[in-house]
Amino acid sequence: MKKQIRILAIESSCDETAAAVVEDGRKILSNIISSQIAIHTIYGGVVPEIASRKHLEHIDEVILRALREADCVWDEIDAIAVTHGPGLVGALLVGVSEAKALAYALGKPLIGVNHIEGHVAANYLSDPGWEPPFLCLVISGGHTHLAIVEDYGINRILGQTRDDAAGEAFDKVARAIGLGYPGGPKLQKAAMEGDPAAIHFPRPCLDEEGYDFSFSGLKSAVLNYLNQQEMMHRPVNAADVAASFQQAVVDVLVGKTMQAARDYHLDKIALAGGVSANLAIRGAMEEACRQNGYRLSVPEFILCTDNAAMIGSAAYYQFLNHDLSDLSLNAVPDL
Ligand code: KG4
Ligand code: ZN
């Protein structure tokens, strides 16, 4: 019988300190996430220096919990994986240093993983039968692009944002209407009480050829609307603004994804990244896929936002390809 491969994975690229044990890239044995939301909320956003300090404080305990919950001892771990970029450099360095120390002390292979590859791999955990090739819409706080995942870890980028990422737009608009951090989930909640047709905001790039995105113009349109209302002493209905903005984002993301699926004759579509936790986006994408007869994979909520299980899954396929790292592995903020 083939020996199972168990990978201990570490993720510390932003504001979650996370560790997980994943078996054969598909089975989560443990998935521990220590969130820093409470502390960053005080400052209205992620403070990089605080993020690094908190990672340092929690990383050992998070890793030990991941091992305990997986009911594993170190001998049963085949490799150590870690996110080495993109992300906040100080935050990444905590995970990378920890992983290198563990790999060296235990004499186990080290696997540096691209955080975005991890987000894509979340689909392999949520749906054990999900395999490349497929079209993937990556929507996170720092990235927005459409790619064909041709094989594990092999992506052909069709288009990407020319300015802000989708999550960044959610966060900035949330702040502008007074919702604070973390913007995405708070804006989604506000939007549930609002009318998505109340205000017409632009749908950037939707009628253009190609698969690029742009969200900074949409964000500016929201800011202009807020300024106009203030100048004319008219009240702002934050729920309507949230719902109308969210609808514009949904229309662009779904429209571009369907266009790419049609053009490239792909009938399997996956979502990846924190913004794919958004209920309006999930719902609209499900409906569009149903109408067109496409299969859709959406990671369960806990696997959409940052976690280490997704890093353990991506690392497994690198392990099979002998795509390992050595102890010179470094944090690469703009990987
Ligand atoms: O993937 P992620 O956890 O971290 C990065 O790799 O960037 O994504 C974080 C982003 C943030 O911008 C956050 O506001 C957004 O995902 N987000 C959401 C929702 N949950 C998280 N945006 C919209 N609706 C949500 N429910
Ligand atoms: Zn992420």
> What proportion of the residues is helical, as a percent range?
40-55%
Structural class assignment? alpha/beta
Number of strands: 10
Order of helices and strands: EEEHHEHEHEEEHHHHEHEHH
Order of strands across the widest beta sheet?
A: 3-2-1-4-5
**Total domain modules:** 2
| CATH class group of the largest domain | Alpha Beta
Report on the structure:
The protein is an alpha/beta fold and 335 residues long. The protein has two domains: 6-121 and 305-320, Nucleotidyltransferase, domain 5, CATH 3.30.420.40; 128-302, 2-Layer Sandwich (Nucleotidyltransferase, domain 5), CATH 3.30.420.40. The protein is built from eleven helices and ten strands. The strands form two sheets. The protein has a five-stranded mixed beta sheet, sandwiched between helices. A five-stranded mixed beta sheet has the order 8-7-6-9-10, sandwiched between helices. The chain starts with 5 loop residues before the first strand and ends in a 15-residue tail after the last helix. The model has no long low-confidence stretch (mean pLDDT 97). Zinc ion is lined by residues 115, 119, 140, 274, 306.
What is the structure about, briefly put?
The chain has 335 residues and is α/β, with parallel strands linked by helices.
Helices and strands, with pairings:
Blueprint: E1 6-11, E2 16-23, E3 27-35, H1 37-43, H2 48-70, E4 79-85, H3 89-106, E5 110-114, H4 115-126, E6 134-139, E7 144-151, E8 154-160, H5 166-176, H6 183-191, H7 216-231, H8 238-263, E9 268-272, H9 279-292, E10 295-297, H10 301-304, H11 309-320
The chain binds 5'-O-[(R)-(carboxyoxy)(hydroxy)phosphoryl]adenosine and zinc ion (ZN).
